[in-house]
Amino acid sequence: MIKKIPDPIDVHVGSRVRLRRMLIGMSQEKLGEALNLTFQQIQKYEKGANRIGSSRLYKISQLLGVSVQFFFDDMPVEAAGESAGFSENDSTPMIMDFVSTPEGVQLNRAFSRIDSADVRRRVVDLVKSLADNNESEATD
């Protein structure tokens, strides 16, 4: 039996569905109910195991409050089947992996509630400082 490998575009689109669903606090069950699907089907979409048809993707975009383009934003060059050429290494997959974690979602929600641009900038500076400190301790 040949193991089917998910298409990188389907994986990316699915991860964006998961990201947006988590950011707005919607469960897989609730999204599935709105689409007349099981939560297991939503899981398969989010993992890229099953491809999302265009009409269903449109319905998902409406339910999640984003444009269809959102699901294709930040797609790695390799997923699109294009050559990266001499471009620098893209860290988007690593960032998407973090943002999709429970901690990433919590951090994004809390950060987006900060009204002051100055405070947001200081929070970013604090996190950078902590990361730099952590790296220097690891090399000691």
Can you walk through the features of this model?
With 140 residues, this protein is mainly α. It has 2 domains: 1-85, 434 Repressor (Amino-terminal Domain); 101-140. It contains 7 helices and no strands. The protein has helices spanning 8-23, 28-35, 39-47, 54-64, 92-99, 102-112, 117-139. Helix 1 crosses helix 3 and helix 2 (28-35) packs across helix 3. The protein is globular, with a radius of gyration of 18 Å. The termini are far apart. The model has no long low-confidence stretch (mean pLDDT 84).
Number of domains: 2
Shape: globular
Largest sheet: none
Number of separate strands: 0
> Given the structure, what is the number of helices?
7
Strand content: under 5%
Mean pLDDT: 84
CATH topology of the largest domain: 434 Repressor (Amino-terminal Domain)
The run of helices and strands is HHHHHHH
Task: Report the end-to-end length measured between terminal Cα atoms.
Answer: 50 Å
Could you list the spans in which at least 5 consecutive residues all have pLDDT below 50?
A: none
Rg from C-alpha positions? 18 Å
Question: Any key phrases for this structure?
Answer:
mainly alpha
In short, what is this structure?
The chain contains 7 helices and no strands.
Topology:
Elements: H1 8-23, H2 28-35, H3 39-47, H4 54-64, H5 92-99, H6 102-112, H7 117-139
Helix pairs in contact: 1-3, 2-3
